[in-house]
Each structure stands twice: as structure tokens, then as C-alpha cells.
Amino acid sequence: MIKKSLTHQALTLAPLAAWVMATLWPGVSLAESYFNPAFLSEDAASVADLSRFEKSSGQAPGKYRVDIWRNDEFIAIEDLSFVEADKARSGADVKSGGLVPCLDVGWLKRLGLNMLAYPELAKYKAGECVPVTKEVPGVEMTFDFASLRLDISLPQASMLNGSRGYIPPDQWDEGIPAALVNYSFTGNRSSNNDSYYLSLQSGLNYGPWRLRNSGAWSYTRSDSYNTNTWKNISTYAQRAIIPLKGELVMGDSNTGTDVFDSLGFRGARLYSSDSMYPDSLQGYAPTVRGIARTSAKVIIRQNGFVIYQSYVSPGAFAISDLNPTSSSGDLEVTLEEKDGSQQKYTVPYSTVPLLQREGRLKYDLVAGDLRSGNGQQDTLFFTQGTLIAGLPQGYTVYGGTQLAESYTAAAIGLGKNLGEWGAISMDVTHARSKLADDSEHQGQSLRFLYAKSLSSYGTNFQLLGYRYSTSGFYTLDEVAYKNIEGYEYELEDDGTHHKVRKPQSYHNLRYSKRGRLQVNLSQSLGDYGSLYVSGSQQTYWGTDRHNTSYQAGYASGWKGISYSVSASWSKSVGLANNNRIVAFNLSVPFSTLLGHGYSRDKAIDHAYTTFAASKNADGQSTVQTGIGGTLLEGRNLNYSVTQGRSSSSGYSGSASANWQATYGTLGLGYNYDRNQREFNWQASGGVVGHADGITFSQPLGDTNVLIKAPGASGISVENQTGVKTDWRGYAVMPYATVYRYNRIALDTNSMDNHTDIENNVSNVAPTQGALVRAAFNARIGVRAIINVKSGDRAVPFGSAVREEGSGATSMVGDAGQIYLSGLPLEGKLLIQWGDGEGSRCFAPYSLPAESLKQAVVVANAICS
């Protein structure tokens, strides 16, 4: 009650005190009030120089590591210099701490500002602070000191086209020199048969170059035969050609699929890399044009989502850097004028793979030997070139050629965005061919592509292709066959543990391709699930037989229960089997069966029951039930147990578990039916050699990130299941996105009491195939509260503190208390409370060894 009364009196007297101060000292304004050390201590000498806090919002100028955002788009986390607002000739609010960023012309270019539109910027030298809000009208900068976030708003009219989503090439990271190995080992053992398989992908990175090799070893042993083989699958070198926005590959690779069918080759390929372009310039999207009466805001929506928002100056404008969220769906444009009025209109939009944006060129050049795993084909040298160009008015023109000793082909095509009628492209290919029997042929092939979305009805309809070929048309892949007709065989188990040759594919060049139709249709039914139908049919000259494939399915869910019904049918020329099958699948969470709410902490709520049934054209049916789920804290252990019955093999069952661990993945399994019982196992992972040693990891991707936090062991990486730093503080995050910022964050909740990370977030933008390093400054040591005295009194409040050995910093609190983390057991503190030698002292300290077992220790020290 007394405390409440005193507080009320203080609040009542506060306005009166302010009036008295203003009357007696009129020269002192409330905006620049004097900070009297006596408020902290009766002895002013016991308080450090706190003049930098005299201003109500004052923070010390200098370098701060901040999150930089441009137009609500993340740019980077970097150290930026900040200066006082008045020195930068720019205002700053209280939230900013009285600071504004010092941005030079280099940073303005990096932000995508059109420098040519502002010639006054040429007078500023590199490293010199530019008063951005003065020189570039319409720019707004907001700095939140508490969260260390800098927001920069640039008008659309001030930016270079295509800058949205763009990371300049000088920010791309080629990575560090490294040796990489990816391995996958599987084994299988049954009563009279053992088999083992090892797949290896190895590589070397040096600068922009990537050298890769892939090979496999297999071993099989049974009562009647043994096999032991090693097969080299591919070897190639690759690097980015940044000025051409392309990739160069030399060795074993595959051609593109835009104009001609994809082919394996051994040679060289130079092609456009879509990943090097901004997200907003990849693929196809129409140019949105309009006329603004005033300085207006443009909002573009697709399928109900805002996909673009920016500002335009009065007059005509064109927006050509859209990044649609889907391949179809009309664009709804809203123009909000300064006077409050609005313009609204719709830009119809659909796309097919060959459409490109206006002004975009996409190229692909190949020279090398045809390479196939099919033993029925010859190796022949060929060259191929394709070019796709985006034109005004929604047109795209494309073409290409394939040349070989026995083959010549040329293609040309045109695509068009038809607005509300969808998108279409058509091309024709003319080819001259010489087959294995030395017969010569020539013919044409016409291809038609169409796509249309009825997004308001949830329908996506794509006639992905109808191709009609004359009887004399052959592809380069067909010309490579050694014989006019033949089978490709593979060794398979005949069910009695003997290997027999079984046909896997068939070709007959007398049956040249005639027509191919492929249709995809998907329909969303809202709360009632979704439906899809897809199919393709290939007909041939010289026979009424054809290759056919159809799929259809329905999927839905209810209260966590998911179920689906699917059907498939296929038939191939030359192969006897008809593959027809109907299947039903059901999955029910245990939380639903038990009738209680979901809890992420209970293992039972991460488990589910399954039921599956299928029947094929031969009348063979299978029914299977089981349970599955995930275990462990990180949910990185998956398990499954099933029991079923088949009309062909009787009762069967299986049990399996897969652990996604820090240094790889491990799996075990057991299967049985009436004919045999077998065990299987698998192990996969990666090994990375780099300048700091060797790091083991989960299976590597094409592009990876090496996390370096020396001494910080056992720290988890956010959003990466099972990935933790090893005993030295290193880890590998696989599958990084190329030419884009990848956010690498260490989970601070997984750190022990003796580990601190100054900044647990890093951003890297790797090039294709790179191993980039994300370095973190870890402080390993004791967390301590040290009470420091100088003589018989505490060191001044607010003094700056630095431990000389580790570099740990802090500030003196009340009664000389100092909190520091990452301290060694013995060290020396430098304490500074003013300028000059007489305003500092040194405080040696020594902590007991058991401090390493405590969360926070308390100690005393004398400063002299």
C-alpha cells in the first residue's frame, strides 16, 4: 500500500518538476536533457562517462551487423556503418537510436538503383556516405535498433528492370577448394542369395571448376553363380560462365529438352542457366502495362495472392519482372492513385514451357558423341544448337538444329500467349536420316503444345503435346540403333534364385513414329479432395499397335484421415505384358483413433495405421495393413511394420527402420513370404575434405554449405533434420539453392552452458556445385558474474569491459558487477570508464576448474 502511494505521488509531481526545470533553466530543452550521474550514485566519480546517453534516443555510431531488407525483400545480413542523424543530413526517429546508415554508391548499385537516372550521384566517391533520401526522391529508410533491421523502400521508377529478386554476381560465392564423396551402400541376404551394391559420387572443387565422377560396384552370390562388377557411369567437369549467364559442361551429360528430345552425350555443352536470372525473370510472364495519373501504388494479384507490389511515377509504366506463383491464373491489376481513386483491370495469363519473357534469350550448344546405356545403339558424333527468344506482344520464337554424319535435322517454332484463351506453341522439324540398313529417309514432325487454366473452377488443363510425324521422320536416337529391330535384355531372378535374360525394351525402325498425344487434367474439389487424369498414346507407321499409358486418381481427407483411389494402365509395342492395376490406400493417425487431441510431444501422436489393397490385370491381388511413424526428439527415426497377403505368394510381412543421423543415414529391414526370408540394410552419407580437415555428413546434394563454428560441438542447424556440428564444430548442410541467399541458422536452444555464438545466422549465395563456407564466431568458456573493485570501491558503473585473451566484451553494472560469457578459466579484464591512461585498470581473475560444470559462476577480482 505504501509502495502504491509513493508511486502515485511521484507521478503527480512529475509535471510540476518539469515546469520548475523549464522555468529555472530555460536554455535546457527537454529534447537535450542533461544526464546527471547523481541519479545513479551520490558519488559522480563512481559513474563512467555516459555522455553518449544524454540524448533521449542516442546510440553510439559505428558498425552494426543488421538485417537489410529492400521493398520487403530480404537482401543480406552484413556489417554497416551508422552515423548520427544530423551528420548524415537526414532525420531519424527514436526507434533508430538516432542513427542512419552510411550507404555509398556501391551499396546503391547493389540495391538495384538505376544510377544513370540520378547523375548527381556521380560526385560521390566510393566509401563516401550518400544522403540517399535527399538525392533520390521517394526513398524511405527505417532502422529498428532493437531488432537491428534496416528497411529500405525504393520506388519502382528508381530501380533497374529485373532487380527484384536479383543478387548481383559479385555476391555469388564460388565456394572453397574441397574434395567430396557421396556414398550409398545396400546389402541383401536371404537363405541362398547375397547381394551388395555400392554407389559412389566423388568430386573436386577448385575456384569455379567442378570435377565429378559417378560409379557403382555390385556383387551377387548364390548357389549357382557369382558376379562382381564395377561400372563407371559418368565423368565431367563443369563451371559457370557468368558473363554469358550460362554453364559449361565437359564430359558425360545430357542435352536439354526444350526443342529436341534429351540425349546422353560425351562432349561439351554450353547452355543458359535459368538459375542465374532473378526469380522475377525466370520462365514466362506477360508485361503489365498501364498509365498512372499520379504517383501510384501498383498491386498485382494471382489466384487471390498478392504477387507484386511497387510504386510508379505519373505517366505510362511497364512491369516486366513479375514472378507468378503458378504457371497459370489471370493477373488482377489494381492501381491506387494518390487521390484515393483506383484503376482495376485483368491481364489474362497462361504459359507453356517454351514461352519466354520479352527480351530474354535462351541458348543451348552441344558437341559430342551420343552416349547411351542401351547396348543396341552405336556411338556417333553430333552437334546440336537451340535458341529461344522472347518477343513483344507475348510472342516467343525458337528453333534449332541437330547434325551428324548420318542425320540432319532443323526445327523452327512460334509460341503465343493468347490471353484468356490460354497459351499455345507450334513447331515443325525436318530431318534426313540414314538407318542401320543404309536406307535413306526424310520427313517432318509437327508438334503442338497448349495450356489453359480455369483457376476460378480449380481446373488445370494441359494438352502437353500432340506430335504428328510423317513416315520418313526419325530422331537422332533412332538413327543410332545398330539393327533395324531388336530387344534390350537385363538379367533378372526367375524366382528360383537363377538369373535369366528378360526383355526390357524393344525397337523396330520399320515402325516409325506417327502420332503422340499427351493430356493432363487436374481438378480441385475443395473440401472434397482432388481428381486427376493423365494419359499418353504413341502410334506408329506400319502397324496398328501402339504404346499407351493412362493414369487416374482421386485423393481426399477427413479429420486427419487421408485416402486415395488410383488406376493405371499401360501397353508397349513388342512386349507381351499389359500393366493394369487398381489401388486403394488409407492412412489414419492414432490420435484420431484414440479420440484425443494432437500433441507433438507424444510418440503415439506421431504414429499412424495404414491399409493398402491392389489388383492387377492377371487377377493377382494384394492386401496389406501396418503401422508407421517417427521417433526421437528430432523425429529423424522413421519406422514401419506391415503384414499382408498376396494371391500369388501367400502371407507376407515386413519391418523397417531408417535413422537420419548427423553423419549419414542408416536403415535396416526384414521381409518374408512363403518362398523366402531376407534381411536388408543400407547406409548412405557424405565425406567432405577441406582446408580445416574432414567432415562427415548426410548424403550430399549438388551444392552444399560447410558450417564452421570451431569448438561449438553438438549444435543443431535449424530446419535440417538430424544435422548437428561435430566434435570440432563443423557440419555440412546439403542441398543449397544456387544463386540465391540461403539462410543458415544455428539453433541456440541446442547450445550448452559454455557455448555462445555472437551471431547465429549467416546467408550465403552459392554458385552451381559449390561448397560454400558459413562461418560463425563461437565463444567457448565459462559464463560468469565477476564483482570487481578498485581499492575499496566498485569500478564505475557503465565502464566498458574486455577480456584480453578471448575478446569477450561487456559493461559494468550496479555495484561493480560484470557478466561475461566465453571466458577462459584464467584471464585479465581491461576496464575503461573514460579517456586517457588514468581512466582504466586491469583486473586479473582465476576461476576454479569446476566452473566448467556450472551454468553461471560468481567470482571476485581486484582492478589496479
From TrEMBL:
Pfam families: PapC_C, PapC_N, Usher
Protein family: Belongs to the fimbrial export usher family.
InterPro entries (UniProt xref): Fimb_usher, Fimbrial_membr_usher_CS, FimD_plug_dom, PapC-like_C, PapC-like_C_sf, PapC_N, PapC_N_sf
Species, as recorded: Cedecea colo
Ranges of residues in domain PapC-like C-terminal: 791-849
Protein name: Outer membrane usher protein FimD
Bilayer topology term: Multi-pass membrane protein
Domain PapC N-terminal: 34-186
